[in-house]
Amino acid sequence: MNHLKTAMVVLGVLIVAVAVLLVGCKSSETTKKPTKKPTNSSDKLDKDKTKQLSFHSFEGGGYNYSATIDDESVATCSAKKKYSGDKKEKGADYEYVVTVEAVAKGETGLTVYGQSDNLGEEYNYFKITVDEDLKLTVEAINEPYSATGPAATDDVDPQSKAVVSYSSFDGGGHEFTTTIDDESIATYTSVRDYGSEDPSEIEGASYYYVVTVCAVAPGETGMSIIGDSPVMEPEEHYFQITVDADLKITLTELDAPYNGTSQDPAGPATTDPGEDDMEPKAYPIVTIGDRSFPLGLENNSSAEAFLEKLKEVGSLKLDMQDYGGFEKVADLPWSLPTNDETITTVPGDIILYQGNKITVYYDENTYEFTKLGHIDVTQEELRELLGAGDVTVEFWLEWTE
């Protein structure tokens, strides 16, 4: 009898335990049941106020990009690399993705700069516009963004405007930027004037960088126009801007940056294309097939002598032969001084050999010779232009003022 009671008690405990377990499972299932995702009314707004830009590159020689926004109170940006495959793979391709997000109504500029030891430099400029609903617009432009102002309007009194300009060319010419110290006194706009030329159809198209300065209020301030080039010495131009009570503007060119006081002028400011009284300068260009490249010269007596010879002849066209599977070579019509040293070439190097031979390298080679200069071109592009056999290469001069 006692055994029967014990068995019944054990059975009762088991029944209660099973019941508790079943209730717990049901409760757990109810908790895990998916719920409908709430609708976010701001999804559309977020999409409108965010834009993405993408720039292709690759590891081990591609462009290293960076992004800068002029005024982060209007918009901000972030960037990341998005790889198309294994990022650990040699030469892995990726997209440099820049995400721009609106902050407040206004207008500002974005610069995406790329630098590569093999490819040179790349500048990408954008105008960012944010409206009162924080809707974002990103527009590609041809030069650094500059704030708009009276200088941008056509109905300004001609005496309240002044114009300066400097010549340059695509693919190695000076990239100019302008800065006015106090834009409450004067503002500016700038454009590239190609004249009747279509720059998309002309390799190394020439243009004038034209800056229009416009008076805003009486006073005095300074302006700097700086030109940078991968193959030429920088240009620096400084001005004193004077605006009188009638908003008549005067530009006075200076020898040094404006320092807040009237200074002795360096001479009259350039007002029209072609009136710059600086001595013309010659910069060497290399043409292979239908492509032309600025030749960045080395700082040695060999490169200086080569430049002087080009000034004498104007143009040097050579039939070059392939040698060793890494260079094209031709005899020069004259000898040049040598500055031999042990060099490992890279594609694009222009080399002087034995003082009377010139070579264009499209691959690596280590030897003792003189480097004359370098052209910025990828190995793939250079191989395609040079071909497998003989090729005609022309060395000539671009004259700028």
Supply database-style keywords:
401 residues; Immunoglobulin-like; flat; 24 strands; 4 helices; mainly beta; Cyclophilin; ten-stranded antiparallel beta sheet
Tell me about this structure.
This protein folds into three domains: 45-144, Sandwich (Immunoglobulin-like), CATH 2.60.40; 146-278, Sandwich (Immunoglobulin-like), CATH 2.60.40; 281-400, Cyclophilin, CATH 2.40.100.20. It is mainly beta and 401 residues long. A hairpin with a 6-residue loop joins strand 12 and strand 13 (235-243). The strands form five sheets. Strands 15, 16, 17, 18, 19, 20, 21, 22, 23 and 24 form a ten-stranded antiparallel beta sheet that branches. Strands 2-5-6-7 form a four-stranded antiparallel beta sheet, with no helix packed on it. Strands 9-12-13-14 form a four-stranded antiparallel beta sheet, with no helix packed on it. The protein starts with a helix and ends with a strand. The chain contains four helices and 24 strands. The relative contact order is 0.09.
Number of strands: 24
**Biggest sheet: strands, sense, closure?**
10 strands, antiparallel
Shape: flat
Tally of helical runs? 4
pLDDT averaged residue by residue:
80
Q: What is the string of SSEs from the N terminus onward?
A: HHEEEEEEEEEEEEEEEEEHEEEEEEHE
CATH architecture of the largest domain: Sandwich
Derived from helix and strand composition plus strand pairing, the structural class reads: mainly beta
Low-pLDDT parts are 25-45, 148-155, 270-277
Cα-to-Cα separation, first versus last residue: 121 Å
* Proportion of beta-strand residues: over 45%
CATH third-tier fold name of the largest domain:
Immunoglobulin-like
Total individual domains:
3
Radius of gyration: 33 Å
CATH class assignment of the largest domain: Mainly Beta
The helical percent reads 10-25%
